[in-house]
Each structure stands twice: as C-alpha cells, then as structure tokens.
Design goal:
By secondary structure, the protein is an alpha+beta fold. Helix content is about 65%, strand content about 20%. It has one domain (about 1-105). It has helices at about 1-20, 50-75, 85-105, and strands at about 25-35, 35-45. The longest helix is centred in the middle third of the chain and has 28 residues, at about 50-75.
C-alpha cells in the first residue's frame, strides 16, 4: 500500500528532523501593578530524546518496508514482475539510521 510507504517516509523524516532541530519554547511571566505591567519573557530550546528519534526512524523504516512488501505482493498477484527497487531504496535509510544512532551515542 502506498499509504504505509508514505507514512513510513514521513516518520523517517520526522525522526531525522527531531535529532537535528530543537523545539523552541517561550514563557512569559509578569505582574500588573496599577496601570503598569512588569513582565519577563524567557525563551529556550529543548531537544527530543535520541531514543524517541530512533524509535521514529525505526518505525518509519518498518512501515516503509511493510508498504513496499504489500505492494510487491499485490503486483505479483496481478502477474507483474517487480524488481526489489523498494528495498534498494530503503538500504540507504537503514545505513543513515545506524550512522545517526552511532553519532548520538558517541556524544555522551
């Protein structure tokens, strides 16, 4: 199914983005005295845990493989012969995932 393949690719992209991009967070605190306002605005960025990112990437690869596998089976039932292009497309993603996990674990 194409839906599983695309959902898997979206999860992989989100997992990679969560490793690289921090999530900004802004807080505003203040008091009001009469007609005047005294306020303080703080902002900081938080990163998502690498474990969550790896789970997103692994889940995305699994969904992509399931979508590619079901698509191959449905095409084979119709009499079409399809080469394993979809698995060849996913090999670089698995290599990327392993290199990212090695990089994030070596930082600690």
């Amino acid at each position: 199914m194409k839906i599983l393949l695309f959902a898997g690719l979206v999860m992989v992209v989100l997992g990679i983005a969560s490793l690289v991009l921090p999530i900004p967070h802004t807080e505003t605190e203040g008091i009001k005295v009469g007609n005047t306002n005294l306020g303080l605005q703080t902002s900081h960025s938080e990163r998502v845990s690498p474990v969550i990112s790896v789970v997103l990437i692994a889940g995305g690869i699994a969904l992509s493989m399931a979508g590619a596998r079901s698509r191959n089976r449905s095409l084979e039932r119709r009499g079409c012969r399809l080469k394993q292009r979809s698995y060849a497309m996913l090999r670089p993603l698995t290599r990327l995932m392993t290199s990212i996990t090695r990089a994030t674990t070596s930082r600690r």
